[in-house]
Amino acid sequence: xxxxxxxxxxxxxxxxxxxxxxxxxxxxxxxxxxxxxxxxxxxxxxxxxxxxxxxxxxxxxxxxxxxxxxxxxxxxxxxxxxxxxxxxxxxxxxxxxxxxxxxxxxxxxxxxxxxxxxxxxx
Length: 122
Fold this sequence. Notes:
Layout (H helix, E strand, L loop, with lengths): L2 E5 L2 E3 L5 E8 L8 E6 L6 E6 L6 E3 L7 E6 L4 E6 L8 E7 L17 E5 L2
């Protein structure tokens, strides 16, 4: 049974950095494209970034391009999102998900974990 467990969220001030992680189990992680999505308060889910199975191909939504970096460690079944120069607009619950049609398809499977809250506020 697939499981995704996110961690590393918290409260930070604008301009600060945070790295969130997601440990996967229950499927062949090293063969799966993965993604991070987020849900700001009162808004719909938004695709943020995707990475291919080998960690070579990456893609980002325009609003985080240049500030966020997605990476993975297949030996640890873990995907990361390094977030720099955070702004209040990045406040959201962040989820990692399995991509359905490739790392840059901006589509994802229905299952997601409990998420990790990121709050950016002064």
